[in-house]
Design a protein that fits this description.
The chain has 308 residues and is of the alpha/beta class. The protein is built from nine helices and twelve strands. InterPro entries: PCMT, SAM-dependent_MTases_sf.
């Protein structure tokens, strides 16, 4: 199939658009944007709903120039000029925004995202509540709020009080703090990050948040290490989240997943899928694709710092 971008018309109706991790229900739309991209085996077709121009300023799908979890080089990067950005200026407003688009579906996820203020984990000078990934230095990012919400939704049954959670690529510490609040003081939340400077800066972020007490009491911890190897000290884990795309699911993470546990991990190189990995009580593994996403690669420290 020929590579390229082309427009096709479709009947105007409310629909749900899936675009690089976005699961927002679109408004009534008169057109769709369709593009095809080749792979070494077959071409893949992607279709996105296009909103009327007057609706673009309130469209979360287009507010993120990287569509939406994307941390690099989306083919739609130029579309950001059509969006005026978000007027959301408080954490609860961000959560309400995600609830209104059906990204946050449970009261529990809404409560933890309201309690852990994203502004404490975003580098100074950046708009903390806009639904977009943001650079945190060292060729790393903090994911868009909708992706954090999606992962919390997928993992919430494995983030009950007293359970154990591992956050691979913990970055600024935001999602690790959310995990800690959900599993509580009787549980254990562990962040692993291979950039020492990010680990160092994440500690005061967490200390200032509602999870600060859990950090001081020891049920939340952040460690310098290669996240591809997990963190065996506190294994097995009921929930594992991976915040960067692996070419394949690392075996140590599967090994450290508790029977009955769940892992959420982006997998792929150019084309990536957010995969949900469940380990049954008998130890058997099942894997399903949740949606297409775009993350920075899960790699070693030197390659990350080189941006390769």
């Amino acid at each position: 199939m020929k590579r390229g971008l082309f427009l096709s018309t479709a009947a105007a109706r409310a629909t749900r658009s899936i675009a690089y991790g976005s699961l927002y229900p679109a408004h009534t739309v008169p057109h769709r944007l369709t593009f095809t991209t080749p792979s070494h085996r077959h071409s893949r077709r992607h279709t996105f709903a296009l909103l009327p121009t007057t609706a673009l300023s309130s469209c979360p799908l287009l507010q993120n120039p990287n569509f939406l979890t994307g941390n690099r080089n989306s083919p739609f990067r130029g579309m950001e000029r059509y969006c005026s950005g978000s007027s959301i200026n408080r954490n609860k407003g961000m959560v309400d925004h995600l609830k209104s688009y059906g990204v946050i579906k449970s009261k529990r996820v809404a409560e933890v995202m309201e309690t852990i203020d994203r502004a404490l984990f975003v580098p100074s000078g950046n708009p903390p509540y806009v639904d977009s990934p943001l650079s945190i230095g060292y060729n790393a990012t903090i994911s868009a709020p909708h992706m954090h919400a999606m992962c919390l939704q997928l993992l919430q049954e494995n983030l009950q009080a007293g359970m154990r959670a591992l956050d691979v690529g913990s970055g600024t510490g935001y999602l690790t703090a959310c995990f800690a609040l959900m599993v509580g003081p009787q549980g254990r939340a562990v962040g692993v990050e291979h950039i020492p400077e990010l680990v160092s800066s994440s500690i005061p972020n967490i200390e200032k948040s509602a999870a600060g007490t859990l950090l001081r009491e020891g049920s939340l911890s952040v460690h310098i290490g290669d996240g591809r190897l997990g963190w065996p000290e506190f294994a097995p884990y009921d929930a594992i989240h991976v915040g960067a795309a692996a070419p394949e699911i690392p075996q140590p993470l599967i090994d450290q997943l508790k029977p009955g546990g769940r892992m959420v991990i982006p997998v792929g190189n150019i084309f990536q899928d957010l995969k949900v990995v469940d380990k049954d009580l008998d130890g058997s593994i099942s894997v399903r694709d949740e949606t297409s996403v775009r993350y920075v690669p899960l790699t070693n420290r030197d390659d990350q710092l080189r941006g390769s």
